[in-house]
Write a structure and sequence with these properties.
FAD/NAD(P)-binding domain; 5-stranded parallel beta sheet; single chain; alpha/beta; 10 helices; 403 residues
Length: 403
């Protein structure tokens, strides 16, 4: 058995993949054993799942084989599902075994947050992973097939109902409205019979974006046929509808999708880590409160921005940056040095509105619209591919066509 310290990374999302990658770059082989545990043998682009769910990209486009980008000579990869974390014992239980560790990185990703809305968990589709997203599109297309074949002549089958107008919800809405004309041509259905509806309890879509950008996004999507119900609370979800508002109006649809929020993987809370709104409040250096050898990063944690008295954003950009700090701090601990605090460098954010359209705030709040913003969105996506897999991965998976 190796006498080297064992670093165990749980989850191969953005945070886990980049932490593993950085560890192989910063540590010599003799300094530590690195183990990456992931349910599947692939990593997927979480920020592309809305496109898979709308059927505008092939699922394999969003999938990257872990062994293609992680050096298996440096990292032991275990394909298994984590079932329990025992931080007091420094052990992780899996479906097919268990692993001990000296240092643990928890990056297990997110689960859907239902906010207590009855029926969401049971009846709504959710954009959580490749398989879920693929199933959403297959279900949506099956409703068009049912209608076109005469199996069911209820036009409400063609309605596509999306709950939540945050980042994922709006990007999904944009891809759906892009796909609808193609489905209508394929199954000889009039586009006028299809409704794409987005329901949001908040008074605006895309919270956190500049008001002008929000208005641009909303008007562009409305012009393409999206119907918004803003400031409308979802009271209940049924197998084929949302019950909304104080008057409990029922909005029927053949496809009902919930994109309203996420929380940390439930395993994290079950391990005894204290949660705030579904996530661990990580310390400044990304370690879990009360555990000097456990890091919690990505969708599993909040990291506090003390200057602005609020958490840093939880997104792919922050997860990638947290990975760099996490790897550096693990190296510091191995060498008996002080860890560093995580500081988020906000390079801006861009939201896609379909193939040739987007909005964004970048670098000192510069506003981007339309094709310029779309080109920047593709640059951001390609930059991650470069970081994790170099130029070859960009050529294989990248979004090289900007418009």
């Amino acid at each position: 058995m190796s006498s080297k310290p064992r670093i165990l990374v749980l989850g191969a999302g953005y945070a886990g993949m980049m932490t593993t990658k950085r560890l192989t770059q910063q540590l010599k082989p003799e300094e530590a054993d690195i183990i990456l545990v992931n349910k599947h043998n692939y990593h997927y682009q979480t920020t592309w799942l809305h496109e898979v769910a709308a059927g505008t990209i092939d699922p394999n486009r969003a999938r990257i084989m872990i062994s293609d980008v992680i050096d298996t000579k440096r990292v032991q990869i275990v394909y298994d599902s984590v079932t329990e974390i025992k931080p007091q014992e420094q052990r992780v239980m899996m479906e097919n075994g268990e692993l001990g560790y000296d240092y643990l990185v928890i990056s297990l990703g997110f689960e859907t947050a239902t906010f207590g809305i009855p029926g969401i968990a049971e009846h709504a589709w959710t954009i959580e992973n490749i398989e879920n997203s693929k199933a959403i599109y297959e279900h949506m297309e099956s409703q068009f097939i049912r209608y076109a074949s005469g199996e069911d002549d209820d036009e409400k089958l063609l309605n596509i109902l999306i709950g939540g107008s945050g980042f994922t919800g709006i990007e999904f809405v944009a891809e759906v409205i892009e796909k609808v004309p193609e489905l209508c041509r394929k199954y000889e259905i009039s586009e006028e019979k299809v409704r794409v509806l987005n329901v949001e309890a908040a008074p605006t879509i895309l919270p956190g974006f500049d008001e002008e950008l929000v208005e641009y996004a909303k008007s562009r999507l409305e012009n393409r046929g999206v119907e918004f119900r803003i400031g409308t609370k979802i009271q209940e979800c049924t197998p084929d509808s949302f019950i909304v508002g104080e008057d409990k109006e029922e909005i029927k649809a053949g496809t009902v999708v919930w994109t309203g929020g996420v929380q940390a993987n439930s395993i994290v809370g079950e391990a005894g880590f204290e949660l705030t709104k579904g996530k661990v409040n990580a310390r400044e250096d990304l370690r879990a409160p009360g555990f000097d050898n456990v890091f919690v990063i990505g969708d599993c944690s909040w990291v506090w921005d003390y200057e602005n008295d609020k958490p840093y954003p939880v997104n792919a950009q922050s997860a990638i940056q947290e990975a760099g700090t996490c790897a550096s701090n693990l190296k510091a601990l191995l060498h008996g040095e002080n860890t560093s605090r995580f500081v988020f460098d906000n390079k801006g954010v861009v939201a896609s509105l379909g193939k040739g359209d987007a909005i964004g705030n970048i670098l000192d709040d510069k506003k981007l619209y339309g094709k310029t913003a779309r080109a920047m969105k593709n640059v951001i996506d390609n930059r991650y591919l470069f970081l994790v897999g170099g130029p070859k991965l960009i050529l294989k998976k990248g979004k090289v066509r900007f418009f």
